[in-house]
From TrEMBL:
<keyword id="KW-0813">Transport</keyword>
<dbReference type="InterPro" id="IPR006036">
    <property type="entry name" value="K_uptake_TrkA"/>
</dbReference>
<feature type="domain" description="RCK C-terminal">
    <location>
        <begin position="137"/>
        <end position="218"/>
    </location>
</feature>
<protein>
    <recommendedName>
        <fullName>Trk system potassium uptake protein TrkA</fullName>
    </recommendedName>
</protein>
<dbReference type="InterPro" id="IPR036721">
    <property type="entry name" value="RCK_C_sf"/>
</dbReference>
<keyword id="KW-0406">Ion transport</keyword>
<dbReference type="InterPro" id="IPR006037">
    <property type="entry name" value="RCK_C"/>
</dbReference>
<keyword id="KW-0520">NAD</keyword>
<dbReference type="InterPro" id="IPR036291">
    <property type="entry name" value="NAD(P)-bd_dom_sf"/>
</dbReference>
<dbReference type="InterPro" id="IPR050721">
    <property type="entry name" value="Trk_Ktr_HKT_K-transport"/>
</dbReference>
<dbReference type="Pfam" id="PF02080">
    <property type="entry name" value="TrkA_C"/>
</dbReference>
<keyword id="KW-0633">Potassium transport</keyword>
<dbReference type="Pfam" id="PF02254">
    <property type="entry name" value="TrkA_N"/>
</dbReference>
<dbReference type="InterPro" id="IPR003148">
    <property type="entry name" value="RCK_N"/>
</dbReference>
<keyword id="KW-0630">Potassium</keyword>
<feature type="domain" description="RCK N-terminal">
    <location>
        <begin position="1"/>
        <end position="117"/>
    </location>
</feature>
Amino acid sequence: MRVAIAGAGAVGRSIAGELLENGHEVLLVDKAPTAISVERVPQAEWLLADACEITSLDEAALQRCNVVIAATGDDKVNLVVSLLAKTEYGVPRVVARVNNPKNEWLFNEAWGVDVAVSTPRLMSALVEEAVSVGDLVRLLRFSHGDANLVELTLPPEAALAGTRVGDVEWPEDTSLVTIIRGTRVLTPAKDDVLEAGDELLFVAAQAREEQLEQLLSVRRADAF
């Protein structure tokens, strides 16, 4: 897979390193000469250019990329890069970094963004996820379909504890994608039985989140 990353700062280089270790082809683009540190990520391709300029993106051959990651520290730049990648080059997957959570509402399909990652929001979500049992925690927002990756740890008194996955009437536009049980990561099957303490990860439409939380938080009759 070929991936272009706009922004060769600490965030961009870190992402590049991870992708290269997983066998992907990576191009780092940055307009600041001081950011071009080939020795830090020698396996990557490097391009000194302004990722907001069509000529630069032509040079980067963005049309050959499977994914573009807008990872600069400037939200305006990330939005422009995302829009150009999607509309001018038809890149299938565009991931954008949100630096200021107040701008998160802009990072949507209209700007060519498939997945928006807000580091402050993600950090706070992970803190909530670590301390919350029985509360729905939003981990990540997907622009297409207005869907989110959400997590809930099933409390001991939950009515669904002991229920087969296939027997649960999940809300519409909701999909259980993973069960984390202790150190195990389970791909849910119909015959899997939910247990108290399970971390359940869903992709769910935002409009269904409240309904999902209510379903998962219903207590057993003997818990009252």
